[in-house]
Amino acid sequence: MSNIINARVTFHNSPIHILERFTFKDIDSAYEYFKEYSGLKECVILQTCNRVEVFGLSNDFNIQKIKKTWASLAGLEEVAFKENFEISENIDVYSHLLKLTSGLDSMVVGEEQILGQIKEAITNAREIRASGEYLNTLFDKAIRIGTRVRNSTGISKGSISVGSMAVKLAEENIDDLKSKKILLIGTGEAATMVAKSLNKRGYEFFVTSRTLDRSKAFAETVGGNPIGFEDVLSGFSNYDVLFVATIAPYFLVTFERIKEAMNDKKTGMMILDLSNPRTVDEKVTTIHGIKMMNLDQIAEIVDKNMRNRVNEKTYAEKIISEEISVLEAQMKRLEVEPVVKEIFKDIDTRRVKELEKALSMLGETDQEKIKIIEDLTKAVVEGIIAEPMNNIRRASEQSDEELLKAATKLFDYKKKASRFSKTHQTRIILLWMGFCS
Ligand SMILES: NC(=O)c1ccc[n+]([C@@H]2O[C@H](COP(=O)([O-])OP(=O)(O)OC[C@H]3O[C@@H](n4cnc5c(N)ncnc54)[C@H](OP(=O)(O)O)[C@@H]3O)[C@@H](O)[C@H]2O)c1
To answer: pLDDT tens digits, residue range 176-212?
Structure first.
């Protein structure tokens, strides 16, 4: 019996800087290793700034093998996986994936980005043939359901990222923001969210990163005026608003630097630190004229915003719980589909053989008559096998193992079944039970 599994480390139980340690630097070789060393027959990797997830199809699923492969790919010790490592199987994976595509598992509920990231993950896996019939079907259906959830609820409407909330907060707290000097420190994903929001609202800003080339490249694609990192650190007094979004493991914006800047400045300064861990020293709030907000405070406001949409979330969850049983039945049906196809093929081969024999005995050459006889054979065969085939599919959807076991005892039909797995054997027998009754 095939199992669909999901192993993950996400922002729910790992701060972003810890999560980063679990990422795969080379996705192609990650696919190769998971298939070769973890016994995954199919694999899809979803890697974003908030999560690293491995979806797989396995006959003999083994958590230790998955952890071992993951650890060696990420350059970690196996013990690095603690309570932050989550694992789900089958129906729990379907539920998790539907929450992902619907945006219910995101840091900002309903955000659109994750759906695009999931589409990209399955497209890549398909291209390099890491995924197959099971995961392709699962992801295609989950993407369709997620899109339906978003379209039929208000879950994604007006959803706001942490980046645009930070800009909104600056607008609310500072008079005439357009006339102020704005600086963005960081050129990664979080900084991109801030930059996009600043652009959308028509604010000019400076951007800096440790390497000027990176700031220049960022400015070309996302906007802003690039500026040298060292110049910035030694001259915060030039700015009225700072957005800080880096993964620096120490304070970039220190108490001393801000104190010095404020000595030279006549007006106040607002600092929005989106970094986790923080890269702005909280002590700066004790300096006169400084207003500061950190990621927790910004995220809390985003969350409050979301609570107004609590009904939408409940509605989205209701749709998902209805869709899960349908999805589960569709996935179970995949188990038996190769057998059904094989039997159709086998029976059709026999039909064609018998038809040719009969036509040769009749010596029939009239094409119209041949067509009538051929159609007759097809109609008889299809009429007989359609129902038992559907019975097999239904039995598979409903995991009706009792019925399948009874059929095994009643009909000792092993010749054909020996080509398939044990589970499949019982299902073939069921076919013949229907076929003969
Ligand atoms: N991505 C999100 O959705 C999101 C949401 C909320 C909060 N956050 C937080 O925002 C921060 C940045 O996340 P991210 O996703 O944008 O990361 P990222 O894409 O990896 O970008 C990291 C940024 O940090 C800079 N950086 C790295 N080491 C540095 C150092 N020692 N000194 C100064 N700058 C350094 C990098 O630029 P250089 O290497 O050129 O300096 C780059 O601009 C994190 O603390 C994260 O927790 C992220």
So the answer is: 999 999 999 999 989 999 999 999 999 999 999 998 9
Out of 16, 18, 27, 49, the active site residue is 49
Positive or negative CA dihedral for 285, 293, 198, 252?
Answer: positive
What does the pLDDT look like over 14-61, one tens digit per residue? 877 788 889 998 999 999 999 999 999 999 999 998 899 999 999 888
- What letter does residue 236 receive in the DSSP assignment? G
Question: Is ligand 1 within 6 A of the CB of residue 76?
Answer: no
CA 173 to CA 175: how far, in whole Å?
7
- Dihedral sign from CA coordinates of 267, 268, 274, 275: positive
CA distance 242 to 397: 57
Query: How many residues in total does the chain contain?
Result: 437
Residues 93, 139 contacting (CB under 8 angstroms): no
Domains of the chain: 3-157 (3.30.460.30), 162-307 (3.40.50.720), 335-436 (no CATH)
Ligand 1 within 6 A of CB of 381: no
